[in-house]
Each structure stands twice: as C-alpha cells, then as structure tokens.
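input
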Amino acid sequence: MDSNHGGKEGLVGAQANEVEIDIFEFAERGEQVPHARTYRVRIDGETVKVQTPTPTGEELLHTVGKRPCAFELIAEFRHHENCVIEPHEKVDLLRHGLKGFITAHKEIVTIFINNDPYKIERGEHTVAQILHKVGQTPEGYVLLEEKGGPPLPVPPTVPVNICGCEVFFTQPQSGASS
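output
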C-alpha cells in the first residue's frame, strides 16, 4: 500500500468493503474507487450516503429531495465532462473519474392530470392550456389542483406556475354535460 494514502481512503482489497468511500476524493486523486458498504456522493455540493455502487438516477435525486418530473441529474467527471442520467438509468459509482452530480430544472416537465402524466413547458400557463392537455375546456370543466390537501379549484383567470410534478384533476362544470 502506498504510504501516502493512509487511513480509510488508502484501503484496498477485502478491507475496502468495510469502509465508507467518498467518490469525489478518489476522482480528485485519479484513483479507481474500490467497493465499499457505503459511498459518499456529492449532489449539488451536498454530501449524501448511498448503500449501493449502482443507484438509479431517480434514487440519487430522491436523496436530495428532488423528483425526476421536475429535475434532471447530471454526472460530473474529473476532466470536465458531464452526462445526463435518466431516472431509471443505473449509475456506476465506481466509474473512474466520477466526481459527483448536479441537478438542473427541466425545461419540459411532467405534470399529472387525472393521475396520468403529461409533458409541458415549465413556466406560467392558463387553465385552458392545462385542460387542453386532456381535451377539455374551461367552459365545460373545472381544473382542481392538489397541494398537500384536498384538490381545490384553480381560478380560470389566474395563471398557473408550472415547476414540474404538479397534480391536477378535472371535473365537469356544474350544469355542464360531460
């Protein structure tokens, strides 16, 4: 073992399985990341712990409280390369040069209307634009938004700010035929 790399970071072989590994430290030194029980991974500068060397993009986003309907995960490598990780794609934390991850707001996000996913551009939208996704209009339907409680009607004259992951429901207008 190289005497310049004492401590946990310098462990190799069977002993490495007993320690917690910080993948950033290995990338900075240009060394191969060994297998471990726990991996310390940086996401947006925050260090999180992961128990598998091959988490999915969605699992990594979840560790920092973000969801793939609004954010994308980007792997950062030692030589300034970046790579977008899809939500169900497995990431190899042992990949040489992997420093960590950053997240970015998606421009095209996913919202849910009547429990079905729909793609829409992030930003302000009218109730009519959202209802159009399901082939409905404000004249015949009310748009309801769920925000941690029962769904409440969205006024048709107020713009709706879409960030991603919003949950909407529709119901026929009183006296309107469906």
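quick obs: The chain has three helices and 13 strands.
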